[in-house]
Structures are given as structure tokens and as C-alpha cells.
Amino acid sequence: MDNKEFWDKVWSTHSPSGGIPWDIKKEDDNLRDCLNNIPIKKDKALELGCGTGYDSAFLRDQGFKVTAIDVSEYIINVCKRNHKNIDFLVMDISKELPKDSFDLIYDRGCIHNNKDNIKQSLKNIKDCLNKDGYFIMISGGEEDSEYPRPEKFYIFDFLNDIRNLFEIVLIKKINFDLTEDNGQFPGWLFVLKNA
Ligand SMILES: C[S@@+](CC[C@H](N)C(=O)[O-])C[C@H]1O[C@@H](n2cnc3c(N)ncnc32)[C@H](O)[C@@H]1O
Known about the structure:
Layout: H1 3-13, H2 29-37, E1 44-48, H3 54-61, E2 65-70, H4 73-82, E3 87-90, E4 102-108, H5 118-127, E5 129-140, H6 159-165, E6 167-177, E7 184-193
Parallel strand pairs: 1-2, 1-4, 2-3, 4-5
Antiparallel strand pairs: 5-7, 6-7
The structure holds S-adenosylmethionine.
């Protein structure tokens, strides 16, 4: 099963109205804190692996013009029905990114599911980030073994690649908010700048 088939199956076999632990149907608190504390220009934003699209909707409501991509056509169609004034596209981050430049690129849980081509993906992200633009990445920790993934890895294995491409503004241990009854999911918040 390829990555697209895997994620179409994940999304289509769960009701989009519930049942997926990370799908909290609201913005991530860490994203809100970043917008409150970091001088990010509120112009163009790109979300990678947007899932059901609630972080993108939050960014739109904060004044960004938002493009949101996901490899799953199934979930992109759900997003198009649920959220207006966002440019939703079916796209695989390991292959391409929109031909535009952004002030903010945001990822919650997409990169950490894409070990193959991660170096190329990081480079592609840098290439479509404006100078002084920010890349905010929320990634799982190595302790999150109970959650299945296409291929498990630890984001710190790529710290040197990250350092070579971006200025590190913040790396912070966090907990992903999960849906009720699913506890918390250990992870890391990276705030990176295209200096
Ligand atoms: C763990 S979910 C997170 C979804 C959403 N960001 C959230 O926090 O609720 C990972 C998302 O990334 C998408 N995804 C996985 N690999 C991808 C890829 N190579 N390119 C684009 N999207 C991908 C999946 O379809 C899924 O929606």
C-alpha cells in the first residue's frame, strides 16, 4: 500500500466526525501560542498534511490567506465541504509543494510520518518560505510507540539537516492535545526561521 492509499484508508475508515486520536477539531494550543508570541507576518500561510483542516481554518480566521495540502484526496474533499476561503489541494509533500512563497509554513504531524525524502522535503519547505518567514513543525517524540505509522522515526535524527537549512528559534517539549479518552501524545515543537 503506498502512502496515499494508506492515508485515504485511515481517513475513510474513520468517520471524519470522530474516532481519530489527533483529530481534535480545533486549533492546536501551540500554534495559537506561537502566533501570540512570534512576529509572524500574517499574509500567506501553507499547512502541510492538514487532515480535517481546523488549524488551517484558525489561520484563515487570524487573517492569513491559507493554502492547505494533504496526500489524501478523501480528506481534502471533506475539508472543501467544511471550510470556506481556504485553497485545499491534494499534494504529496515528498514530491512537490505549491509554487508560491509563504510567510508561515505549518506542520502538525505530517513530516513525522514521512521519513523517506525528509531531507528533500525540508529543502522544498525552505525554498517556498519567504525570507524571515517561519516554519512551525509539531512532531512526535520517540516515546509515542503505541501509534502506528507508515514508518517510524525520530525527528532529532534530522537535527543537523534542520540546522543547516533554518535558524532555530525554539525547540520545546510538548504534548499533542488528543481527543477525549486518548490522553496525551509526547512530542516536540520546532519554530524555525528562514534567515
Ligand atoms: C497525523 S495526521 C495530522 C493531521 C492534521 N495535521 C492534524 O493535526 O490533525 C497526518 C496527516 O498528514 C497527511 N499526510 C501524510 N503523508 C503525507 C504526505 N506525504 N504529503 C501530504 N500529506 C501527508 C495525512 O493524510 C494526514 O492527514
